[in-house]
Design brief:
There is one protein chain. By secondary structure, the protein is an alpha/beta fold. The protein folds into three domains: about 110 residues, Tetrapyrrole methylase, N-terminal domain (Cobalt-precorrin-4 Transmethylase, domain 1, 3-Layer(aba) Sandwich); about 110 residues, Methyltransferase, Cobalt-precorrin-4 Transmethylase, Domain 2 (2-Layer Sandwich), CATH 3.30.950.10; about 45 residues. About 40% of the residues lie in helices and about 20% in strands. The protein has eleven helices and ten strands. A five-stranded parallel sheet has the order 3-2-4-1-5, sandwiched between helices. Helix 7 packs antiparallel against helix 8, helix 9 packs antiparallel against helix 10 and helix 9 packs across helix 11. The protein starts with 7 loop residues before the first strand and ends with a helix. The mean pLDDT is about 90.
Length: about 280
């Protein structure tokens, strides 16, 4: 008789405050045969806090494709595994997707153990519409790629959310200010559940000033939430002729030059043309 397959538990862990660990998560981490962790050193401190002495194996972005194969075989032999990230809910901008996909494809049980999540925590306290939202994870590292992202989401009527690091938060907001109107509503949530937790709801122009002027607003881990475009956004879109001129110029000029020339030719606003040019380029 074949042994029963093991189960894969996807376990959320605290994002800062250790008291946010759920009773169920503690029990699962105690009972599984092994724990697959993004950073075993980091997770070991959490386990010690809760008196959990279980075997740890490494599963991070640099080894997860090969490591997942080995873990899948262990599941097939009947071992149960808990998947955890450094903080929060696994797979939300964290490793683990290959293992979960393999387990599902093999017909194995994948069981979520819900808990802390920076995305949901920030949205719950933001005071912006959350019935529909777009989550982008961490934004690209380069300025041009970030600007393209902002141009693509500029006209979306839904709230959009992303993670950002302390090293890029100021540059990120500066890039956003070149594309998104400064009066657009925004929430900056940093160090959620930690000692210096800060949640600021304001508009983009003020958020940029606060982050630029206050060193503390450039420290920690960030969730940035941006209000969707107002209902009249479609009325401010380019005409067919303005788009045609811009597309022709983009074939021979840079985004900046094409937007500048198109503004002189068509009379449309340069910033609006620049946003449209970025979106056109990203769609090529």
């Amino acid at each position: 008789m074949l042994a029963e397959f093991g189960k894969l538990y996807v376990v959320a862990t605290p994002i800062g405050n250790l008291a946010d660990m759920t009773f169920r998560a503690v029990e699962v981490l105690k009972q599984v045969d092994l724990i697959a962790a993004e950073d075993t050193r980091h997770v070991r401190m959490l386990l010690q806090h809760y008196g959990i002495s279980n075997k740890l194996v490494s599963l991070h972005q640099h080894n997860e494709d090969t490591a997942s194969l080995g873990l899948l075989e262990k599941l097939r032999t009947g071992l149960s595994i808990a998947l955890v990230s450094d903080a929060g809910t696994p797979l939300l901008s964290d490793p683990g997707m290959p293992l979960v996909k393999m387990a599902k494809a093999a017909g194995l049980d994948v069981i979520p153990i819900p808990g802390a999540c920076a995305l949901i925590a920030a949205l719950s306290a933001a005071g912006l519409p959350v019935s529909q939202f777009t989550f982008a994870g961490f934004l690209p590292r380069t300025s041009s790629a970030r600007k393209t992202f902002f141009a693509e989401h500029l006209a979306s009527p839904h709230t959009w959310v992303f993670y950002e690091s302390c090293h890029r938060i100021l540059a990120c907001l500066q890039d956003m200010a070149e594309i998104v109107p400064l009066e657009r509503g925004i929430v900056i949530a940093r160090e959620l559940t930690k000692l210096h937790e800060t949640i600021v709801k304001t508009h983009l122009g003020d958020a940029l000033r606060q982050v630029a002027d206050n060193d503390n607003m450039r420290k920690g881990e960030f969730v940035v939430i941006v209000e969707g475009a107002p209902p009249d956004t479609e009325e401010r879109l380019l005409s067919t002729e303005q788009e045609r001129v811009l597309k022709v110029l983009l074939q021979a000029c840079s985004v900046k030059t094409a937007a500048s020339l198109a503004a002189e030719i068509t009379g449309a606003k340069k910033k609006q043309l620049y946003q449209a040019a970025l979106a056109m380029q990203s769609g090529q």
